[in-house]
Amino acid sequence: MCLAVPGRVVGIEERDGTPMARVDFGGVVKDVCLAYLPEIEVGEYAIVHVGFAIQRLDEESALATLRLFERIGALDEEFGDAWAHAAAEAESAPEEENR
Amino acid sequence: MKYIDEFQDPALARRLLDDIARTVTRRWSMMEVCGGQTHSIIRHGIDQLLPGNIELIHGPGCPVCVTPLEVIDKALEIASRPGVVFCSFGDMLRVPGSDRDLFRVKGDGGDVRVVYSPMDALRIARQTPDQEVVFFGVGFETTAPAIAMAAHQAKRLDVRNFSLLVSHVRVPPAIEAIMRSPDCRVQAFLAAGHVCSVMGTLEYPALADTHKVPIVVTGFEPLDILEGIRRAVRQLERGEHRVENAYPRAVRPQGNPVALSVLREVFTTTDRAWRGIGTIPDSGWRLSDAYRDYDAEHRFEITGLATEEPAVCRSGEVLQGLIKPHECAAFGTACTPRTPLGATMVSNEGACAAYYLYRRLTTPRTEETASVD
Ligand code: SF4
Q1: Fewest beta carbons less than 10 Å away: which of A58, B121, B131, B216?
Q2: B64, A57: Cβ pair inside 8 Å?
Q3: At B198, phi and psi to the nearest 5?
Q4: Which superfamily does B25-312 belong to?
Q5: CB of residue B65 inside a 6 A radius of ligand 1
Q6: Chain A residues touching residue B339 (CB < 8 angstroms)
Q7: pLDDT exceeds 80 at position A1
Q8: How many angstroms is it from B356 CA to the middle of ligand 1?
Q9: pLDDT tens, position by position, A57-91
């Protein structure tokens, strides 16, 4: 959750009076709210945090960050299955040891 | 040295490290505020690559870690109620409350859902009007605008079955509290880049001035962190104490004005307890009176909580930079990421987890490990 991930805006539409985008994070595409960055255009990169674009970013920095995140597994942490992660963590934690 | 090859640009990393080594003439300690930075520092061994007389102190910048136990217990209580859909970010699932976590609540039949964005929770509320949908809003200034917008939209669209359990924290009062502590060893700050993407840098000059402390706004990729350290060391050596922006590609001085205006509409500042640290004046946000109807604490009566911290956990001292994780007796034995006793071991951004995951069981750094070759 603490991560802010750069992504590329691939489509923009209005939903319930709010500008929304489809944003591509190195293959994972998510709905992102553009309320805080309304002037961004398709093809540009933005830093996205919990579904909100918060600042523009140049392409070179965005791609470098995405590559790094991919390498260290951060994208999976951010977009992967949180229940599966939690289950894997909990699995080897017997109940008595939990506290 | 094995770590430097892992940098995106090892040659640039080496140049930055050389420059730092040339500049530094005495011992300095600086605090990285953001948990993402801590994670990156430990993962890439930055603290070990630095000259031996520079110490990095890990700061309180992990929202998962600093969310008070009482708030976690409230979340667990609300999430256990029938008719409630409790929505949370995934990293809160395994944060230990007094006697269980959200993962367990789900296992016991609670309707706990992981969402990517608070707007997803609002959508669930609109789709299931007969359920009470509660979103667990934690995080620093980077996250708060998203939560604020969910509240703003809920009000605008008149969604009545949606509320927020809010426990937001702000960085500048935490810096203030750290500097005022009699035990404070921090001589410079690496400020959290994405917090400043939202808030800008205008809150910081007064802090730098009052406490004569350099504050360098820093990103969290390895090279960003090295650059932040380089600038902080340069200021320290020259006896300066300015705010510098070492992350201009994502941070403008005025921050994100649209986000700031929604934040001011939806939230007001409040005193906030930080897990393990205690209450810091004015260090949090709560929903403003105009949004009282959307406050889960107001909507749900929560009584009879018996909040109990594990006595052994020293995460408060870890969060204030007073001890390193491995100095805690439970570290790596009773307390591991699979059996966390404190939140600093749960969250990936927590200092205890970062140390556990990336090597540091007992090793204090040596001059040898600090070499770049
Ligand atoms: S190692 Fe575990 S028990 Fe010790 S301070 Fe860290 S989280 Fe708390």
Answers
A1: A58
A2: no
A3: -85, -50
A4: HypD, alpha/beta domain 2 (3.40.50.11740)
A5: no
A6: 93, 97-98
A7: no
A8: 10
A9: 999 888 888 888 887 777 777 777 878 877 777 77
Instruction: Read off the pLDDT of residues A41-51 as tens digits, 9 standing for 90 and up.
Output: 999 999 999 99
ipTM of the complex: 0.87
Task: Show me where the domains of chain A are located.
Answer: 5-57, 60-91
Q: Work out whether strand A5-15 and strand A45-49 pair parallel, antiparallel, or are unpaired.
A: antiparallel
CATH 1.20.1440.130 fits A5-57, yes or no: no
Q: Does A39 touch chain B (CB under 8 A)?
A: no
Of B64, B339, B346, B358, which to mutate for an interface test with A (greatest number of A Cβ within 10 Å)? B339
Q: Which amino acid is at A22?
A: R
Q: Tens digit of pLDDT for each residue in B111-133? A: 999 999 999 999 999 999 999 99
Choose among B222, B182, B183, B175: nearest CA to B199.
B175
Chain B closest CA to A1's CA: distance in Å? 6
Q: How far is the CA of B318 from the centre of ligand 1 (A)?
A: 8
Residue B259 exposed, middle or buried by CB count within 10 Å (0-12, 13-18, 19+): buried
Q: Which of B310, B373, B322 is nearest to B351 (CA)?
A: B322
Nearest-CA residue for ligand 1 atom 3 is B313
Q: Find chain B residues with C-beta within 8 A of A89's C-beta.
A: 94, 337-338
Ligand 1 center from residue B273 Cα (angstroms): 19
The sheet carrying B215-218 orders its strands as B54-61, B28-34, B188-192, B215-218, B243-245
